[in-house]
Amino acid sequence: MTVPADATARRRASFHALTVKEVRRLTEDAIEATFAVPAKLAGHYDYLPGQYVALRVQMPGADGVDREVRRSYSICAVPVQFEDGSSEIKVAIKRDIGGEFSTWANKELAAGAVMDVMSPMGAFISKHAGGTGVSNVLNSMNHPEDMAHDAGTYVAIAAGSGITPVMALAKSLLAGNPGTRFDLVYANKATMDVMFLEELADLKDRYPRRFALHHVLSREQRIAPLMSGRLDAEKLEALLGTAIHADDVDEWFLCGPFELVQLCRDVLEARGVDRDRVRFELFTTGRPDRPEGQAGRPVQVDESEETYKITFTLDGLTADILSPTHARESILNAALRVRPDVPFACAGGVCGTCRAKLVCGEVDMDENYALEPDEIENGYVLTCQSRPTTPEVTVDYDG
């Protein structure tokens, strides 16, 4: 069985209850959680290196009443399948200051826990997998040495937990073709904050001539001044002019906080790097507005008020809902009020889980860090960021 990358990246999101197989401490503030995937569900958890899953749990709110919490985390390992047909999903969870879920997971999550895990999603994947140069093709849940990739030169720039998807990408690309070179610029505060330190060292030992690792530490002095201090535009330009052969890179991977990713994109664009060669993924846009659990934020509809009519199709079923014009309600929020199974994860325009095709009407899309230019041209929108601007709007989640 083979899975085209486009299908794997944009398939219908679905949740299944998975058991935590192991919890491993990475740093003082980060863990790696391994979920066991039984053979009967293996097909739901095929993935391409660089993709993510959403985790869904019920947690007590300030009033003591349980509410749903969703958080998305990148998969940090290459696909693997065991002899009995089962597999596993590994994610890294770094504790954020004030992060409700990440704090709980770092303190309480243990082997044996059961959690709802969404099928893998995301387009932060290499366009050079499959050996054809046209599309990514991955044998479902196979071993990294069996994956075919085009030989090439790749560079990743990551910060903190942005290393998570890059680990899977680096391992698969290096194992997939003996002609591949991979450079990684990894920014952290100090050595104690470096996630996957041993795994990165192992990669360096395994591919000494093809894998280059550049640690940049903002609060720890290093022998090379270029590798000390905050990674800013000047330092990045210097790295690209000395340590990295930036002019012959086939694909760039950027993962981290918004400010760093945008800085890297601006520097690369100024150097004339084609946007099609740059892949990026954000932690978050920094905007806190998101639907409340699976219900959407409450909206009162008064029949005497002017409303938008929102029609959406999901799993072959069509529903209509009225949304007051003054509420400036997103299509996702409106849909969640009548269908709690509408797919979403981050609700911040970052992950693309809530993607749907705009069938009729017009919308304003506030943010977009997930859709490719060709998807927008073909009429796709992020429903978490899209608000109607015409009396009637129709979207298709199945499209």
Which secondary structure elements does this structure contain, and how are they paired or packed?
Layout lengths: L1 E3 H6 L4 E13 L2 E8 L14 E9 L5 E9 L12 E8 L5 H9 L5 E5 L18 E3 L13 E7 L3 H14 L4 E8 L8 H10 L4 E7 L15 H9 L9 E6 L1 H13 L7 E5 L24 E8 L2 E8 L6 H6 L18 E6 L2 E3 L7 H5 L2 E3 L3 E3 L3 E5 L3
Parallel strand pairs: 9-10, 9-12, 10-11, 12-13, 14-20
Antiparallel strand pairs: 1-8, 2-3, 2-7, 3-6, 4-5, 4-7, 14-15, 16-18, 16-20, 17-19
Question: DSSP strand (E) fraction?
Answer: 25-35%
Question: What's the number of structural domains?
Answer: 3
CATH class of the largest domain: Alpha Beta
Biggest sheet: strand arrangement: 5-4-7-2-3-6
Rounded average pLDDT:
86
Examine the secondary-structure arrangement and name the CATH architecture of the largest domain. Answer: 3-Layer(aba) Sandwich
Largest sheet geometry = 6 strands, antiparallel
Helix vs. strand class? alpha/beta
* Spatial separation of the terminal alpha carbons: 24 Å
Please mark out the parts with pLDDT under 50 across 5 or more consecutive residues, or reply none: 1-9, 130-146
The CATH superfamily of the largest domain turns out to be Nucleotide-binding domain of ferredoxin-NADP reductase (FNR) module
Shape: globular
CATH topology of the largest domain: Rossmann fold
Q: Helix-strand pattern, N to C?
A: EHEEEEEHEEEHEHEHEHEEEHEEHEEE
How many beta strands in the DSSP annotation? 20
Radius of gyration using CA atoms only: 21 Å
